Amino acid sequence: MIKQILTSLILLTSATALAYNDADVRAVKAGLNVINGDLSGADLSGMNLSGRNFRGTSFVEARLVKVNFDKANLSETNFYRASLQEATLKNAKLNGAILNNVRAAKANFTNCDLSKALINRANFYRGTFINALFTGADVQECNFENANCDYTDFVGANLNNAWFRKVNLRNTVMRGANLFQATFTEAKLPYGDLREANLAKATFHKANLNYAKLDKAIMTDTDLTNASMQNTEFKRAIMKKIEPKPDTKDNENKETKKKDKKKTNDEK
Questions:
Q1: Which residue among 79, 96, 200, 235 has its CA within the 20 to 30 Å range from the CA of 217?
Q2: Chain centroid to CA 176: how far?
Q3: Which CA distances in Å does 198 have to 58, 73, 114, 203, 237?
Q4: What residues are paired with 53 via a beta bridge?
Q5: 193-224 per-residue burial string, b: 16 or more CB within 10 A, e: under 16
Q6: For the residues of the chain, what is the DSSP string, one character each?
Q7: Which long-range contacts (CB under 8 A, 24 or more apart) does 49-56 make?
Q8: Does position 187 have pLDDT exceeding 80, yes or no?
Q9: Smallest Cα–Cα separation from 67: which of 23, 35, 29?
Q10: What does the pLDDT read at residue 19?
Q11: What is the C-alpha separation between 216 and 198, in angstroms, rounded?
């Protein structure tokens, strides 16, 4: 229900003309905090906004190339379709934020808190997420190709159809995450924790899974072609297709037919 409301708000926002609040832009340039403000469509590229409080502010379709958001409070903000290429958000708070369709190639999210954020179809190509927190976040269909996600926490995150090609994921925790149809081609996941994760139809072609833990993971139709799996743990992992349980009524009908047939043969 909450996700549907957020989606509706995003569509409503994109349908209306983007017009930032002039007073909010002046406040930003004056070095002030902007809480619950409107900076939609504003061009703040190259500005140093580190340590500022922007909680609840809208950055919808804003141009934020190479902006410094280090240690900023960006919780519950809306960055829908914003441009964050080469921006730095180290130690920033983005918990509960909306980053759908964000363009953030080469952005730095080191130690960033993205827990419970809504991040669908975002582009994080060659981004840095070392020790970042994605706990419980919705990160579907995002592109992390060639990114550095070492020591990142994806516990319980929804990473359906996420693209992790050639990504560094050393010591990354993805326990209980949904990685259905995710792509990890040539990714490096040594010592990764993927216990109880949904890896159905995920691809690990030529991936490094050495010393990784996949205990109790769902691995139906998972592609492990040419993957390196030295000392990888698969305890109680589900690696076969689950056959559907036969219908009770069908079984009863079959048993009845068998009995009738036997009775007829006995009468003969």
A1: 96
A2: 13
A3: 34, 32, 21, 12, 10
A4: 73
A5: bbbbbbbbbbbbeebbbbebbbebbbbeebbb
A6: -HHHHHHHHHHHHHHSPP---HHHHHHHHTT---SS-B-TT-B-TT-B-TT-B-TT-B-TT-B-TT-B-TT-B-TT-B-TT-B-TT-B-TT-B-TT-B-TT-B-TT-B-TT-B-TT-B-TT-B-TT-B-TT-B-TT-B-TT-B-TT-B-TT-B-TT-B-TT-B-TT-B-TT-B-TT-B-TT-B-TT-B-TT-B-TT-B-TT-B-TT-B-TT-B-TT-B-TT-B-TT-B-TT-B-TT-B-S--PPPPPHHHHHHHHHHHHHHHHHHHH-
A7: 52/28
A8: yes
A9: 29
A10: 82
A11: 9
- Tokens for 167, please give them: 């990504």
Considering only residues 253 and 187, tell me which one the structure prediction assigns the higher pLDDT: 187
41-61 pLDDT per residue, tens: 999 999 999 999 999 999 999
| CA pair distance 251, 82, nearest whole angstrom | 57
**What residues contact 214, with CB distance under 8 A and at least 6 apart?**
194, 195, 197, 199, 232, 233, 234, 237
Residue that the structure tokens 């326990």 belong to: 175
Q: What mean pLDDT comes out for the span 101-120?
A: 98
CB-CB contact of 132 with 108 (8 Å): no
From the list 102, 104, 62, 61, the residue with the least C-alpha distance to 85 is: 104
What confidence score (pLDDT) does residue 14 get? Answer: 46
Q: Report whether pLDDT(102) > 50.
A: yes
In angstroms, the CA 109 to CA 99 distance is 13
Pairwise pLDDT comparison (11 vs 184), residue with the higher score:
184
Joined tokens for residue 147 = 């990114």
Q: Which two tokens stand for residue 261?
A: 């047939």
What is the model's pLDDT at position 260?
A: 54
CA distance 221 to 216: 15
